[in-house]
Amino acid sequence: MNNRQQTLLITGGAGFIGSNFIDYFTKQYPDTQILNIDKLTYAGNLDNLREVDQRPNYRFLQGDIGDKAWITSIFEEYDISGVINFAAESHVDRSIEDSQAFVESNVLGTLTLLDAAKKDWEEKGELDIRRFHQISTDEVYGSLGEVGSFSETTPYNPRNPYSASKASANFFVKSFGYTYGMDVVISSSSNNYGPRQHQEKLIPTIISHALEGKQIPIYGDGGNVRDWLYVDDHCRAIDLIYHKGHTLESYNVGGGNEQTNKDMAAQICSLLDEFVPEYRQPYSISSYRDLIKFTEDRKGHDRRYSVDDRKIKQELGWKPAVDFHEGLKKTMEWYVSEWKNKQTL
Ligand SMILES: Cc1cn([C@H]2C[C@H](O)[C@@H](COP(=O)(O)OP(=O)(O)O[C@H]3O[C@H](CO)[C@@H](O)[C@H](O)[C@H]3O)O2)c(=O)[nH]c1=O
């Protein structure tokens, strides 16, 4: 790769959404050079990129967005045409145990990256045309009761350390737009699902525990609601927002599939009963549903997220394309096949 070719910088591309996005983007735009930088924490996995690795428009470097000297050297070495910042500590339960890493990666890391981009693009006289796209979350808006949805004008009300760190990062991103005239945009999506999601999240937990005959932990009464978005639909939304979204704007991205956690667990167990009934035999259960166990609740557990995404639909013409049951089936098949591969190793 010629380093001075214009290059789109993707951070955190070894994680779940980042790796799916790179897979999508390198195929969609074969003439755009992608540089993926990732610290490779516990949640980053280069296996997620094994199919992408050989593509001529892709390159990977290991490093931390919060390492000022290193991130500055990236902007010196490459002609970075834009940044999409996926890099983040993302797991709510971990943030409740210890929030330090969340402030370091999500707040200070984002700030260091913004600063490096700002300095480089200012020197080039292109601060207002090279874009910084922050990947954010619907959790910044807080928690809902049974009715209503978050729109882009809903005031931020983060209620756990993870969402507080993401909200804080968004404020910094916006502030660089207002203060320095930097071209910034933010997307806030609902819960993603699909292949390559880390084991710690709800859907991979349900599938892996079921296959291993372990109890499937559902926090509290299981009535908490999340809006599920298939990761490929999210990738198309990011593409549109990065290329066509208006500067200084935020865009919500939702799946339109609100599910309680207990319904989600029951649906996945039914799919597993249908497709891989044989794996339940050693555990003497008649359905994987028998493994569902209501456990102690998450502290401060947000009750319901619901996303009003009319803005991206109306302004940018996006809509989700993957049917929820199809998406769930594809996801289940991917995890079952990964699990089978591990058994034969
Ligand atoms: C891991 C786990 C989770 N849960 C519950 C907690 C939540 O109500 C729901 C989903 O939990 P999680 O998969 O951890 O995801 P959640 O806390 O909603 O946050 C996700 O979705 C957010 C977007 O809404 C992202 O910003 C976060 O990075 C992502 O982790 O399932 C359980 O009941 N049992 C579990 O074992």
Automatic annotation (TrEMBL):
SUPFAM superfamilies according to UniProt: NAD(P)-binding Rossmann-fold domains
Record's keyword annotation contains Zinc: no
Catalytic activity: dTDP-alpha-D-glucose = dTDP-4-dehydro-6-deoxy-alpha-D-glucose + H2O
One Pfam family per UniProt: GDP_Man_Dehyd
The enzyme's E.C. designation: 4.2.1.46
Ranges for domain NAD(P)-binding: 9-331
Tagged with keyword NAD: yes
Enzyme class: lyase
Domain of life: Bacteria
Cofactor: NAD(+)
Gene Ontology MF annotations: dTDP-glucose 4,6-dehydratase activity
This protein's UniProt keywords: Lyase, NAD
Family: Belongs to the NAD(P)-dependent epimerase/dehydratase family. dTDP-glucose dehydratase subfamily.
Protein name: dTDP-glucose 4,6-dehydratase
Gene this chain is encoded by: rfbB
